[in-house]
Amino acid sequence: MPRTRRGKVAAALGVLVLVPAATLLGAWLWMRAQQPQTNGTIAIPGSGTPAEIVRDGQGVVHIFAATERDGYRALGYAHAQDRLWQMETMRRAGAGRLAELVGTEYGDFALRSDRLMRTLGLYRSAQAMAATLSPDARTAFEAYAEGVNAYLATRSEALPLEFQLLRHTPEPWTVADSLVWAKLMALQLSANYRDELFRSRLLERLSPSQVEDLFPPDAPGAPTTLAGELRGMNDLRETVTRTLAALPRMGFDTASNEWVLTGARTTTGKPIIANDPHLGLEAPILWYLARIVTPDFTVTGATVPGVPLTILGHNGKVAWGFTTTHSDTQDLFVEKPDPQDPARYLTPDGSQPFETRSETIAIAGEASQTLTVRSTRHGPVISDLDGGTATGSSSGAPLALSFPGLAEDDTSAEALYRLNHAGTAEGVRDALRLHVAPQQNIVYADVAGEVGFITAGQLPIRRKGDGRVPVPGWTGEYDWTGFLPYYALPQGVNPPSGQFVNANNAVVGRDYPYRLATEWPDPSRAKRIVEMLGTGRHSVEDVARQQMDVVSLPARDFLPELLKYPTPPGLATDAAALLRGWDGRMDRDRPEPLIFTAWLRELVRAVFADELGPDFASYWELRPEALRHVIGERPDWCDDVTTPEKETCADTIGKALESAVKMLADRHGSSPKSWRWGDEHKAQLAHRMLGRLPLIGGRADLSVETDGDFFTVNRGTTTTRDGANPFRHVHGAGFRAVYDLADLDNSRFVIATGQSGNIWSRHWGDLVETWRDGGALRLAGDRGTLVAAGAEVLTLTPRNPGANAK
């Protein structure tokens, strides 16, 4: 009988468990020795002039090249040396080819992700994006791909362990492989469509005003309701349920901090920028520090392996930082199939055929699956993810997604290339005219002293509706009529206050004439940054310390309201006594952060779980503003509708504290003074695959105790709905930077793990404690200075030397 495939990873696990210890030791020593060459000279295919990859003591790459083309090629080589597995999984995720690599033995996430990416046509969109590149930008992407492929052709060491376990050899790198990362990030940073589906499902259970209570806006807004044509549609209800179940989670909610100070607000007399993007934590972290130096061009900062351009950084003349706008740039349109022909759908101009194509998804160890993708005039139909077809076999109303990030004329990559090369603040603004998706808040400054802020990207203009719920697609009345002109986007320069601050809070007030969004993330971080900045002057060191601030405004400002209510006797009273003298700092060595967070978590459940029923799990996060709204204005929510008694908010607050401390006592003993936030709040810096393997899993786990919480500037988001690990730190600032426009060589950088993705490398996790404790690196110095300090130098010499294009 043929051997049934148990999965490549399962086979690897079995080998590691069963082989003799001596063999394991030999394999361990062999893999540890398989490090990329970082000294000497390597002859690589192609033409051009030699380039040097200089690695400093932390493994940070400083590339010295005669031309930009040689520099980008060297960056591709260095990225492949250090992060090849990360690059491979990134491009496969974007291309919808993960299941081909990992199968479904340990869950169906890869397959569900592949189905979504194929439906959205993300890789097709990346291929089309290549046509939007200028000749100079295309040269950068092509040179980078040459560098990656040069490494694949010249490496003397074995492929990284992940490739060995899966017995996989990577294909050559292409320009589209780099561009698809922009599409993945646009999707992750703009994923409003899931919120639309969730809200529409809640509206089947709750009234519009109740849904408004769950998501209280910063400013008053009209209650959300479904369009009259959609109310009571059973097939829509079915479609929403199926689609939510089929959609893969694209990661944790995204967030970031940024602020820029004018020279009048700094001790240097020149601007200072702070920026720290917040994404899911893992090892290695997304970011890779790099610097390219040529006679005519220098760029320094955070790159992403797989991409040639610097995402966040400076070029010696300007510096920039990003945060996500959280604007609503996606809409779901409910299409109405033609009752005479299910292969067609209705439009204001009559019946039109669904555009269809077939996608074959390979699955490791299983038969391939064929997915029929339908599209309408609004975009791809995402309600077919669970197996619908163009012949109408998919039940329910088709849901089509409109999103600028799927457009074939997306010029966002060109915008980033031009941003990398901008010489002045005006040059930054010119570059960002081409940015499409995701919409981002960008702060920038130049060495002349000008600072600015702009919310760049395409924002749809809706004929009707606010974008919060799916809308009818067949009437045309909710269609997009275009995008907001660039001049109308929120923007400003050299503010009288001397500062621009954004931490994903609302970027516009009530007087702004256009609708960016109807809801904004919690404003606590932005409020705290403004509070710290005050009206004084600040140094680079001041700003770096501010990035590490761990004061939680809900702990400081909302907790006193909770403590007004009686606390149950015993352990709850002891815990409350600790909270009464607490300053709201989320320090890892203190018990109060753990008590407060557990209380807040339990209170959200006590107030909302009974009404939301099975939908509560998707809503369960720390929601102080919703709780404050309920306690102050809508106390009926405090009543548990599943009991005959009428509970008050005082009852519910006390019971929630009692429940929280009981859980903590079960986990940490009965003395609240001995509890520590850091015992539970640990940054999840673990390799997704290797961290699960015996013997080496500990080496692959860089997790470390951390300060902060969801609301602090030093972000420490937790897995609230995870019953086993509700306080694990899973989302935060994987990269931090402070840019000193008085001396850009004095700028500060750090990433959360280390430069290498190889668990045997000395640079696998050498920056973890530096990152956790607020340390930073300076990415500067000429070749001689770096070498004198002990840097390693690898020279890439083209086999066919000759003149390069710029």
TrEMBL record:
Top-rank taxon, per record: Bacteria
Keyword flag Hydrolase = yes
* Residues binding Ca(2+): 196, 328, 331
Q: How is the cofactor bound?
A: Binds 1 Ca(2+) ion per dimer.
Please indicate if the UniProt record lists Secreted as a keyword: no
Which species? Azospirillum thiophilum
Question: What keywords would UniProt list here?
Answer: Calcium, Hydrolase, Metal-binding, Zymogen
| Any one GO MF annotation of this record | hydrolase activity, acting on carbon-nitrogen (but not peptide) bonds, in linear amides
Protein family according to the UniProt entry: Belongs to the peptidase S45 family.
Requisite cofactors: Ca(2+)
Q: Where is the active site?
A: 256
The organism's taxonomic lineage, starting at the top: Bacteria, Pseudomonadati, Pseudomonadota, Alphaproteobacteria, Rhodospirillales
List the SUPFAM superfamilies: N-terminal nucleophile aminohydrolases (Ntn hydrolases)
What processes in GO biological process is this protein linked to? Answer: antibiotic biosynthetic process
Q: Which stretches are annotated as coiled coil?
A: none
Annotated protein name in UniProt: Acyl-homoserine-lactone acylase
